[in-house]
Amino acid sequence: MSGRVALVTGSSRGIGRAIALELGRRGHPIAVNYARSKDAALEVTEKIESAGGLAITAEGDVSDEDQVRGLFDEVRERLGDPLVLVNNAGVTRDSLLVRMSTEAWDEVLSVNLRSAFLCTKAAMRGMLSMVAVTSRSA
Q1: Which of 6, 51, 79, 122 is 20 to 30 A removed from 59 (C-alpha atoms)?
Q2: What percentage of the chain has pLDDT greater than the value 70?
Q3: Which domains are present in the chain?
């Protein structure tokens, strides 16, 4: 698995940051995705590179289909097909149901669920072509 391009959504902070750093340490070229935290994403990228890894920052709101398409186009162009995908992006809008707005509910579903669908769908093209190449050579 070492050396395969990895895209970690929401990897500028928290668990996503830790995953990106570990995958980079293991030799994967990393696409550090962020929607709002550019400086934090740049810091993760710099940390991976200073340890001898290869990383890029890749902006994109993974709950938006057009931005996901652009994100995957950028990663493919700069690093190659992402064959490792970590759907990490997520938001928490904890509230009592009676106090939660419809907008907050929609945002949670969009970022936490829709983004996983959109990114997995976008990643499948490269992943399926890798399976086809691997099975032909076996």
Answers
A1: 51
A2: 93
A3: 6-137 (3.40.50.720)
